[in-house]
């Protein structure tokens, strides 16, 4: 029985220690929260503000990258249009050269046709002369 009483006393001491421990933990934790909570709330607000600003900066940076890509694309287009003007000028020159060559070839064809007609006339005249000479020789030879 003496053992039982000692156990009861130990148990009561433990309960007292636990009760006093739990009763002292709550005010201590509230005090700790009162000390650090305002600065933590401020830090949380500042972090939220910072992340919002970072997101805004990322969006702006993305927009700037897109506009830079458009400018680069515009420069490429500008370069292409510059080359297009050069090639268009070359094409105009080639067309002009082709027209000149066509005109020359047409003139040469006309000249060749005239020369052929002249040769044919000369050949016809020559054959006519030869025929008339042959006829004269035949007439002279028959007499």
Automatic annotation (TrEMBL):
Stretches of the chain forming a coiled coil according to its record: 84-139
Compartments it resides in: Cytoplasm
Superkingdom of origin: Eukaryota
GO cellular component, one term: transport vesicle
Xref: InterPro entries: BLOC-1_pallidin (IPR017242), Snapin/Pallidin/Snn1 (IPR028119)
Signal peptide: none
Keyword line: Coiled coil, Cytoplasm
Principal subcellular localisation of the protein: cytoplasm
Pfam families with a match to the protein in the record: Snapin_Pallidin
Family under the similarity heading: Belongs to the BLOC1S6 family.
Function: Component of the biogenesis of lysosome-related organelles complex-1 (BLOC-1) involved in pigment granule biogenesis.
Protein name: Biogenesis of lysosome-related organelles complex 1 subunit 6
Organism: Brassicogethes aeneus
